[in-house]
Amino acid sequence: MLADAIAAERFRLLRDRSAVFWGFCFAPLVGFVLSIGGDLFLHNVIKKPMPGLGIGLIDQVIKALSTGASTFDALFLMIGAAAVLAGDYRWETWRLLTPRNTRQNLLLAKLVVVGEAAFWSLILTAVLSAVAAVIGAGINGKALSLSMFGHGPFDILGVLAITWLEVMTLAALAAFVGVLSRSTMGVVVVCLGARFIQTILASSLRLMEQGQPSWKLLALPVFDADLLRAALLDPAQLGQASGSAGPALIALFAWTAVLAAGAVLLFRRQDLTKE
Amino acid sequence: MSIALEADRLTKTYGAVRALDDFSLAIPAGGVFGVLGPNGAGKSTLFRIALGLVRPTSGAVRLSGAAPGDITALRKVGAMIETPRYPAYLTGRDTLKMLALESGLKSPDIDGWLERVGIAHAADRSTSGYSVGMKQRLGLAAAFFTKPELVILDEPTSGMDPAGIQEIRALIVDLARREGVTVILASHQLDEVRRVCDRVAILSKGKVVAEGGVAELTAGEARLRITAASPIAQILAVLGAKGVADGADAALADIRRDEAPALIRSLVEAGVEIIEARWRDADLEGVYLKTLERTSEEQGGDA
Question: How much is the pLDDT for B303?
């Protein structure tokens, strides 16, 4: 049963403290430390009040969540995803698991657990960014408000969902590469490379295009996620491109579904002679 | 009679290597079935195909009547394939907990099984610090603790000390006889197979070359051992090609039971002073080696 496989994977991940810390806690913690460090630097070294009316709590959370799948964050998320998705090749433990559940359930459970862990990692990012905003306001004596741009809690949920979907596209790629390469290192290198190349391609193509984004841009999950966040938070800024939010959402879902299905199909046919 | 594992014209190739070659075997449910064969005979490949770890090139295999990968059948099967490995971040107890969750077990007797296989003292230690023998014991607990109807064990006592081997052997027999679990066991330790198994199949180059009850296989290979006060050369001269020396004062005659009176008469007529003549059942090792030798000669002849 899929539920059994998910419970087992969740149990395993919670015991793998190294993967939990480096994969799903480290990047949010770094963001928190850098934010506080920046505020302390302003207060103690620059010693000048920075322009601006104050700090918007929701804005800070949205900003942190929007970059929750950046190349830096993706590096650590993929370390955690690789431990879950390709760890059994590393430990040679497929022979222990495969006789207890179907191949499809085993791999889908891993993907679900990576999705859960990524979700909690984003929640940690949101909470720590809110805490950092409060501390930062205190350090620099800035006024703390809910939002400077009229954003509300539903915007946080929207950005959380979009960034999570963006992460899941990477996680599905990680599952595919994990099965194909049978290597945790392969997962990290390929997924990070894919994330980095997408960022460069998206910014280069966008410079060359005006108006509606082309299919080439819409095929890039990084661009799709940015477009969706912009469409949610500031649709006026997008102009004509706001009409592409639907195709962008479909593209994100399609990438996740196709890569996940590809990984499952490949895994179902794979010989586990020596994992 | 129900069948625990059935292979039908199974072939598996790895590049140019044929690990299983048109392999057919039906292992009955109940008791302990031994699978013997030299390295590369196809034992592990057979088990891996049955458990859904490897796909056959052609042919079919059924485990408790179901195709490999069928979750209903898998839930009735326990297995330990080669030296078991575990994620290093899990303790022995956590490993069984994780496997219990994977198998959908609600209240597994984890502590009881850790006790039964003799590693309760190390239950909360990381498996990365386990010796090979301890890993084998944990693997056995993992194979048995889900209360399976069929257990597949590949070299279950390799890396264990003699006392451990004896303990595990007793456990396997106990589970098979008292709890009615069907055990399919591959081992290089022929003495272990002889003591534990009811039936065996001998594999060579991906094919079954002999199959039957242990007593049945060894009975057909019995030889007459003749001890005499006369020089051994005198006995061997009478026995000819059918005789072979067995120590300084005895010889083994490879004859049928009904040929014994005539042979003894010939020996007496030749002046051999016979002290004793008794039938000696062949051991499994003898049968095994002889079968492999015969198969090798046949295959050589075919080539």
Answer: 41
Helices A103-140 and A57-66: crossing angle, nearest 10°?
140
Contacts of B99 in chain A (CB under 8 A): 8, 96-97, 100
Asked if residues B126 and B89 have their Cβ atoms less than 8 Å apart, the reply is yes
From first CA to last CA, the distance across chain B in angstroms is 38
Flag residues of chain A having pLDDT under 50.
none
> Which pLDDT score is estimated for A34?
93
Mean pLDDT of chain B: 86
Alpha carbon of B191 to those of A129, B17, B187, B245, B283: distances in Å?
67, 30, 10, 24, 9
Q: Name the H helices within chain A.
A: 2-15, 17-19, 26-41, 57-66, 71-85, 87-90, 94-97, 103-140, 153-181, 184-208, 215-218, 221-233, 235-238, 245-269
CB < 8 Å from A in window 61-100 of B: 69, 71, 74-75, 77-79, 81-82, 84-90, 94, 97-99
Task: Compute the distance between CA of residue A148 and CA of residue A274 in angstroms, rounded to an integer.
Answer: 57
Is residue B172 scored above 60 in pLDDT?
Answer: yes
State the angle between helix axes of B232-239 and B260-269 in degrees (0 to 180), rounded to the nearest 10. Answer: 130
pLDDT digits (tens, 9 = 90+) for B252-270: 888 888 888 998 999 999 8
Strands (DSSP E) found in B145-187: 150-154, 182-186
pTM for the model: 0.84
Predicted pLDDT of residue B213: 84
- Which residues, including other chains, have CB under 8 Å from residue B19's CB and lie 6 or more apart? B12, B13, B40, B42, B45, B206
Which residues have C-beta within 8 Å of that of residue A259, sequence separation ≥ 6?
A169, A172, A173, A175, A176
Neighbours of B73 (CB within 10 A): 20
**Which of B48, B77, B98 lies at the smallest CB-CB distance from A11?**
B98
Q: What does residue A121 show for φ and ψ, rounded to 5 degrees?
A: -65, -40
Cα-only R_g, chain B: 23
* B22-75 residue pLDDT tens: 999 999 888 899 998 888 888 889 999 988 889 999 999 998 888 877 888 888
What value does the mean pLDDT take over residues B157-165? 82
- The reply to whether residue B103 touches residue A5, judged by beta carbons under 8 angstroms, is no
B66 - beta bridge partners? B63
Q: Measuring CA to CA, how many Å separate B87 from each of A13, A72, A77, B83?
A: 11, 27, 20, 14
Average pLDDT over residues B141-158: 88
Question: What are B17's two structure tokens?
Answer: 């290597």
Residues of B (141-160) whose Cβ lies below 8 Å from A: 142, 146
**Interchain proximity A101–B103, CB inside 8 Å:** yes
Among the partner-chain residues B74, B81, B90, the one whose CB lies closest to the CB of A15 is B90
The ipTM, to two decimals, is 0.86
Tokens of B62: 């059924």
